[in-house]
Prior knowledge:
The protein is an alpha/beta fold. The chain is 41% helix and 25% strand.
Amino acid sequence: MSNPTSVWDATDYATNGRFVADHGSTIMAMLDARPGELILDVGCGDGALTALIAASGAAVHGIDASPELVAAAVERGVAAQVVAAEDFQGEGQYDAVFSNAALHWMLDPRPVATMMAESLKPGGRLVAEFGGFGNIAAIRTALSAVMHRHGYSDADPSQYYPTPEQYAGVLDTVGFSEVEARLVPRQTLLPGTMTDWLRTFRRGFLDAHDVPVDQQEIIMAETQELLVPALFDHVGDRWYADYVRLRVTARH
């Protein structure tokens, strides 16, 4: 299922979203990619982590629905293709499926989980991390309130933030075993302002709800102002995002 709010600018993402890959060290260690393995990176984005997996000696293939981000990944030297996750045909050839900060953009989790299961060899492993229950709750609440103030009262956030139990249930139904899923709260330092974050991660959301560009800037500025008490560090002059990640491992 295509997510109309998942719209990206590769240069903007490299500037304001690099922290996403920077926080991937734990899940990369959990993947423990080995030379000679064949690994699928679901939602590879601009290929920052995909390239690190390849540096381990594994053969890695990235997929992403964004042509802009896949172009950036290919320019980085990553083997990647533009395809929606649920449409990819893995044919049981992969030793591992990896995904970081992507599955919450895929609104129908079951066909994506089915694809991941079908892409794995028997005994193959899944290692994933993405937005879980409670993710960016303060940001979502503030943005929703500001949009309501401007007449966008029924805006669909178009995100999938499940509980561990919900997502484990999805994986169970498509044939995964040894499923472990847990929430990891992670207050995350941003490289710029909250408005920068909103431009990078919610521009597509505002576009999808036909918010004019000039009004988008007003909405983002008002959202930032509303979030000052919750997410701005006055002493350090720094912004944070209230991330909660769902960390998942499983076997097929």
